[in-house]
Amino acid sequence: MRLQSKTQVNVRNVVIGGPDPRICIPLVAVDKKELIDQAKVLRPLSPDIIEWRVDGYKGIGEIADCLAAIDALRSVIGDIPLIFTCRIEDEGGMQALSQKTRLALIEAAIRSGEIDIVDIELINDDAFIDAVRSAAGNYGVKLILSYHDFKKTPAEDIIVDKLKQAQTLGADIAKVAVMPTGYPDVLTLLQATLKARTEAVTIPLVTISMAREGVITRMAGGLFGSDITFAIGQASSAPGQIAIGDLRQAMSFLYA
């Protein structure tokens, strides 16, 4: 039996942190038509969660356009939980955006009532995190606080500290994604996940080692305590993601 979170997050009847790790498919689209076309293809694949990486959307600076896209997206995906992510440029965001505009967009998405989870980074300043956490709490939206390193894998204690920091700052889910330079780094990520889950962090975790070397963490990370993994629907949002069908088949042997 895999290591479960001491507390669970429930969104639209999907339990995060329970007996089974959940599979999320990210949507990356430049305009509303592409977004909806992707969603129509992905809906029959029945992912547990869908993430919209709005930082890849060409209308990102127009809040009304983004809200219309969220509304249209919800009409296609039905009751599948939706993560709204406007990734900051310093941690893999696809477009530059002022923090003022980014915050206004995130708060508007939260108020829309159409998103279930919002993901922001620990690198943001305290005022930004406080504002998003407050808005999310007021509207019943769950908060992911995340940390990404696309160049390396930090030491085990640093990874654990990032997950603990997310919990301390009020996250409902803590996330770390790092880049391995070799297989020892993959073991570092898994060991840090295990340590965080058993010693320090009671909320659901998401931990990922990226690229080819880290693929095993997308399949087996749940055994060490990670509660969400990411698969490809059509477009990848991070290096190392694999197709949802292949991921499900591999996971069926590990979590039977």
UniProtKB/TrEMBL annotation:
Residues binding 3-dehydroquinate: E51, W52, R53, R87, R218, S237, Q241
Top-level taxon in the UniProt lineage: Bacteria
A GO molecular-function descriptor: 3-dehydroquinate dehydratase activity
Pathway(s) served: Metabolic intermediate biosynthesis; chorismate biosynthesis; chorismate from D-erythrose 4-phosphate and phosphoenolpyruvate: step 3/7
Name of the top EC class for this enzyme: lyase
Reaction it catalyzes: 3-dehydroquinate = 3-dehydroshikimate + H2O
Coiled coil: none
Active-site residues, record numbering mapped to chain: H148, K175
InterPro entries per the UniProt record, alphabetical: 3-dehydroquinate_DH_AS, Aldolase_TIM, DHquinase_I, Type-I_3-dehydroquinase
EC number assigned by the record: 4.2.1.10
Record keywords: Amino-acid biosynthesis, Aromatic amino acid biosynthesis, Lyase, Schiff base
GO terms, biological process: 3,4-dihydroxybenzoate biosynthetic process; amino acid biosynthetic process; aromatic amino acid family biosynthetic process; chorismate biosynthetic process
Summary of subunit composition and partner proteins: Homodimer.
Role description: Involved in the third step of the chorismate pathway, which leads to the biosynthesis of aromatic amino acids. Catalyzes the cis-dehydration of 3-dehydroquinate (DHQ) and introduces the first double bond of the aromatic ring to yield 3-dehydroshikimate.
Protein family per UniProt: Belongs to the type-I 3-dehydroquinase family.
Protein name as annotated: 3-dehydroquinate dehydratase
Organism: Desulfosarcina ovata subsp. sediminis
